[in-house]
């Protein structure tokens, strides 16, 4: 059974970089498969889910066009985890952030429990 767990600070100041890590257990982020990718989505208060980006088993990455200039997804294969970095944050980046396994078609078969990040001075 695949499990994902997010970790990271719950408060970030404006203009700083938000950094979250997703630890994966029960599966490997380097398993060769075109059936899924590992990534991040978020849900701002009162709004819908927003797809942020994914990383494939071989390290290929896709980002949301609207966030691409501020987003980095990095992986550590030795620890079987991947991380999200979102730079120059503003209060509009306040959201619950989830790491997910993306199976395409805006579908995710495994989710972390989510971590709430608030951007405030």
General form: globular
Largest sheet: 7 strands, mixed
What Rg, in angstroms, do the CA atoms define? Answer: 13 Å
**Topology order in helix (H) and strand (E) letters:** EEEEEEEEEEE
Strand content: over 45%
Structural class: mainly beta
Low-pLDDT runs: none
Distance between the amino and carboxyl termini = 39 Å
The portion of residues assigned to helices is under 10%
Work out the oligomeric state of the chains in this entry. Answer: single chain
Average pLDDT works out at 96
DSSP E strands, number: 11
Number of helices: 0
Brief account:
With about 120 residues, the protein is mostly beta strands.
SSE inventory with pairings:
Layout: E1 3-7, E2 11-12, E3 18-25, E4 37-43, E5 50-55, E6 61-63, E7 71-76, E8 81-86, E9 95-104, E10 107-111, E11 115-119
Parallel strand pairs: 2-11
Antiparallel strand pairs: 1-3, 3-8, 4-5, 4-9, 5-6, 7-8, 9-10, 9-11
